[in-house]
Amino acid sequence: MLTRDYAADVRLLRQQSNEAIAARDADRVVSFMDASIEVAVAGGPALRGIPANRDAFAQQMAEPGFGGYVRTPEQVTVHESPLRADERGMWVGRWRVQGRVHEQRGAYSAEWRVTPAGWRIVREVYRELPD
């Protein structure tokens, strides 16, 4: 039986990850990821490993119109043996293009695992939803 509120831990880490994106801190963003991270980007490439994810975030964050991403968990399910968590929710990304705000949004899922360094994301999948 789980004795801690691991789901709350995952939600807090997601909030901190969102804050790192808002601060345009690519190093902090990838600090929540496991070395084996795999990210399926909505409409984009599959990113494997921390360096690829860091580079992708740094490139976007360098764009003047980048407004960030916010991921909002709707469900966090914790499993034992091995201890892991599945997170599902909605995401929105914003950019300013020619003076207008452009939004892309959709659903996401993430898998978290406990490592010696704490909870880390091992997999994320982002899907874009039609307008």
Automatic annotation (TrEMBL):
SUPFAM superfamilies: NTF2-like (SSF54427). Residues 11-121 form the DUF4440 domain. InterPro entries: DUF4440, NTF2-like_dom_sf. It comes from the Bacteria. This is DUF4440 domain-containing protein. It comes from Gemmatimonas aurantiaca (strain DSM 14586 / JCM 11422 / NBRC 100505 / T-27). The lineage of its organism: Bacteria, Pseudomonadati, Gemmatimonadota, Gemmatimonadia, Gemmatimonadales.
